[in-house]
Specification:
Elements: H1 3-24, H2 28-48, H3 52-77, H4 81-85, H5 88-112, E1 123-126, E2 129-132, H6 135-143, H7 148-169, H8 181-186, H9 189-192, H10 217-220
Antiparallel strand pairs: 1-2
Helix pairs in contact: 1-2, 2-3, 3-7
Amino acid sequence: MDVKTGLFYVFSLVLLFAAFRVITARNPVHAALFLVLSFFQAAMIWMLLKAEFLSITLVLVYVGAVMVLFLFVVMMMDINMDSVRQGFWRHFPLAAVVGVLIAFEMAAVLMGGFNVSDEPVVSVGVGQTLIATNNTKELGILLYTEYVYPLQIAAAILLVAMIAAIALTLRRRKDNKSVNPSDQVRVKSRDRMTVLKMPVTKVALEAEPSSVEMPTQEEKK
């Protein structure tokens, strides 16, 4: 077993462990962090397959943007985990059926087998020489020609997910006081300050002489 195969098994084991912890972690923040770890391991496996563009894209897009947004939404929503766990066993049969179906689909793909060989090299001939083309360029040409409609559908789904995440964070809470920005924009200067008419200040009345006589020095003695 060479070094490349050994690294593949190491990354795969860490990936399986992280994926298992994503669905078993009780804290949603911990589950998101394990999902980040699984993304990193998948990126390393793609790097072993010399798919550098896909590896860097996975790290930059999913880990650097999508997961940060997901963590932001989870922390802002302040999910009550007790209420979430109440319907676990009620939805467990459906989840088990979906899981078994996915397992059978993956088994059907794996039963076909993979022909492990050297990575394909796309090359074009220029005269008598062969120049290997960049895999990023070939991927871009294939993505924006043959798979342009699935790409647009995926972009629309991501846009809807972003809008839903923002809408969830902007929900109204009873214990939070907020100001509507549109009301602040439409307010007039005369509405900000009210001038009240007060009566003119009256002259203070002179104090009346006290009817109580003060004791004299002789009386004090």
